[in-house]
From TrEMBL:
It comes from Paenibacillus dokdonensis. The gene is yihA. Keywords: Cell cycle, Cell division, GTP-binding, Magnesium, Metal-binding, Nucleotide-binding, Septation. Pfam families: MMR_HSR1. Its cofactor is Mg(2+). Necessary for normal cell division and for the maintenance of normal septation. This is Probable GTP-binding protein EngB.
Length: 210
């Protein structure tokens, strides 16, 4: 995917504020500070369009980013951050649950995990929850640059086994630092969101025109 345009659209708290143009949506879930916003920035080649921070809990609403007028990335608040109050966590939980269950334009959830560690309890809960509701999942294990290449496969195995991943769910190893996995993830997103249709059709229509 060649990104020519990327813009922040809205920080939404509920359905009233979701965009109404019906473009496909790809949501990003994962524990706080795992690297969700950084992943978006690397995907669109922008340093800081999605706000990142070394302080966890920076993303507080459903942040919509429109890419090439073709799709949205929806950045979620991170889970599992101890300093967030219980009440706040319940509010976020409801907001996210509602979005995931009701949003018709949602095509897939990227479950962002940290390749360095086995999945957390919250990662496992999130994966099982998405699976239960039959929402398409792609597990993205980020921060690969923090592990020597020789140990990647061992960590991939640890992650897949820890989550009890189904073979049918896709898995991408990623790094927002080096760009590892970016092309693979774009290819997958484009296919799920039905975006490469036009490109594939191109040669045929050119032929017809001749
Ligand atoms: N080395 C390395 N650091 C990363 C990577 N991805 C994110 N980081 C760092 O991890 C920290 C958190 O990144 P964010 O993208 O803000 O994380 P987030 O998941 O959006 O966090 P919340 O919005 O709090 O949920 C920042 O200091 C990033 O620079 C990566 O692939 N490699
Ligand atoms: Mg964030």
């Amino acid at each position: 995917m060649k990104v020519t345009q990327a813009e922040f659209v809205i920080s939404a708290v509920g359905p009233d504020q979701y965009p109404e143009d019906a473009l496909p949506e790809i949501a990003l879930a994962g524990r706080s500070n795992v690297g969700k916003s950084s992943l978006i920035n690397r995907m669109i080649n922008r340093k800081n369009l999605a706000r990142t921070s070394s302080t966890p809990g920076k993303t507080q609403h459903l942040n919509y980013y429109r890419i090439n007028e073709e799709l949205y990335f929806v950045d979620f608040p991170g889970y599992g951050y101890a300093k967030v109050s219980k009440t706040q966590r319940q509010v976020w939980g409801k907001m996210i649950e509602r979005y995931l269950l009701e949003r018709e334009t949602l095509k897939m959830v990227l479950l962002i995990v940290d390749l360095r560690h086995p999945p957390s309890k919250d990662d496992e809960l999130m994966y099982d929850w998405l699976k239960h509701y039959e929402i398409p999942i792609c597990v993205v294990a980020t921060k690969a640059d923090k592990i020597p290449k020789s140990r990647w496969q061992k960590h991939v195995k640890q992650m897949k086994e820890g989550l009890l991943m189904r073979k049918t769910d896709s898995f991408v190893m990623y790094s927002s630092e080096t760009g590892v996995g970016k092309d693979e993830l774009w290819a997958h997103i484009e296919s799920i969101a039905g975006l490469n249709q036009e490109e594939n059709d191109q040669p045929e229509s050119e032929q017809t025109a001749e």
